[in-house]
Specification:
The chain is 52% helix and 7% strand. It has 412 residues and is mainly alpha-helical. It starts with 7 loop residues before the first helix and ends in an 11-residue tail after the last helix. The relative contact order is 0.13.
């Protein structure tokens, strides 16, 4: 293969610098309710959201963001012990406080929720803009539970190891809910077993929880990761379209969320590491290449494409799918030494740092016409999760590869 001009040494340095800048920015901001991370900034104007901004403002707390943030802070604290020790004490101060706050929230009824009001009571916003008290989740679990569980495991591993069995049991409940159709994806309506059962079988929940497997491996808790093999097999058997190489969001339908498909590849490879069968690596490689090739419309990856035509189904290009591509391409390149994958890594790196990156944070969404105020999931900016953890995975790959010639297969 032709040697790329892409420098892993330069990329590694850029990723470390970017992650450190984001973390310093977060650490320098006042915490919400004394313990929670505060990334409530408009990504276009860089101005803080205030009370006049309603549910974007500081009176409302997003469980998604806080769970993601705890995983990011605890994981980066370990990484920066050797890279930048002066940053670690601040990370641990924030991480320990956040861990305790999220643990206490989850212990109230065994769940995390998408959004909380100023009294830390769960609520949701209906399509007409009205606020409603959220129903008790009971045996229904959600994406918020998934992010709480991952964050609490990462936090407990660093700050409260005696709590780990409690949080691993919580993770197991979330996993069971997916396989028993008790997982509700839509958290912007009342939570109920009927709603969960009636939702289409999107691969998103399995994809997100698959990310917990890599976390468990890194924390030397691999004995709890058996679910990941089932999830990978289920997604590929039920959602993979061999003709296009894409993953159908829902079996029998036309749309493919290319960012989620690429994220799935990264999480799968993060779990499989050096145990993956060559045929499985090739199938995951196919998903990555097809998703990126069809989804990359410049300035980034569009939200979804048609499997039948390959055409974009949305003009919106969120930030998060490019760092996730960097993660997935890095892991796939480490497993295969494939030059085409290296070029995808390079393209995603260039697009993200050229069009989205602003020094310590990124625009949330771009279109052909530039940045736009479109919120993909929550208005709070990324707390080092999609961006930071994705780039951190690529840093680890670079560290495995750099002593070796470009193109050589790497054993992880």
């Amino acid at each position: 293969m032709n040697r790329s001009d892409f420098s892993l040494t330069d990329a590694r340095a850029r990723y470390v610098q970017a992650n450190a800048a984001t973390l310093r920015w977060i650490l320098g901001r006042p915490r919400l309710a004394g313990a929670f991370l505060n990334t409530k900034v408009n990504s276009l104007s860089l101005t803080d959201y205030g009370d006049a901004d309603g549910v974007r403002g500081p009176a409302y707390l997003y469980g998604w963001i806080q769970g993601r943030g705890l995983e990011a802070v605890a994981t980066h604290a370990e990484f920066f012990e050797t890279e930048e020790p002066a940053l670690v004490a601040e990370l641990d101060d924030a991480g320990f406080a956040l861990y305790q706050a999220l643990r206490d929230l989850q212990r109230r009824d065994g769940h995390g929720y998408f959004c909380y009001d100023g009294n830390l009571d769960p609520f949701y916003v209906s399509p007409d803009g009205m606020l409603h008290r959220q129903s008790a989740a009971d045996q229904v679990f959600t994406y918020s539970d998934a992010f709480f569980a991952k964050g609490l495991i990462a936090g407990a591993a660093r700050y409260a190891p005696a709590d780990l069995p409690e949080h691993i049991a919580y993770l197991s409940e979330v996993i069971d809910s997916i396989e028993q159709r008790r997982f509700q994806m839509d958290e912007r309506c009342r939570l109920s077993p009927r709603t969960a059962m009636d939702e289409p079988e999107d691969f998103g929940p399995r994809m997100i929880l698959l990310g917990a497997a890599g976390l468990l491996h890194r924390l030397e808790l691999s004995e709890h990761s058996a679910f990941a093999d089932r999830f990978i097999a289920h997604v590929l058997e039920s959602h993979f379209d061999p003709e296009s190489g894409l993953l159908r969001n829902v079996p029998g339908t036309d749309a493919c969320n290319v960012g989620h498909a690429i994220e799935f590849v990264g999480f799968a490879l993060g779990h499989l590491r050096d145990s993956a069968e060559p045929a499985l690596v090739q199938q995951l490689r196919s998903v990555l290449i097809s998703s990126f090739t069809r989804g990359f419309i410049n300035p980034g990856l569009c939200l979804s494409v048609s499997i039948a035509t390959g055409n974009p189904l949305s003009p919106y290009c969120p930030w998060w799918s490019l760092p996730e591509t960097i993660r997935s391409a890095a892991l796939c390149f480490a497993a295969s030494g494939d030059g085409e994958i290296l070029r995808i890594w390079e393209q995603a790196d260039d697009a993200f740092f050229t069009h989205y990156w602003r020094g310590s944070l990124a625009y949330q969404t771009l279109t052909w016409n530039g940045p736009i105020d479109f919120v993909p999931a929550t208005p709070d900016l990324d707390p080092g999760y999609h961006t930071g953890l994705s780039l951190l995975a690529a840093i680890r790959v670079a560290d495995w590869i750099l002593p070796r010639p470009i193109g050589a297969q790497v054993t992880m």
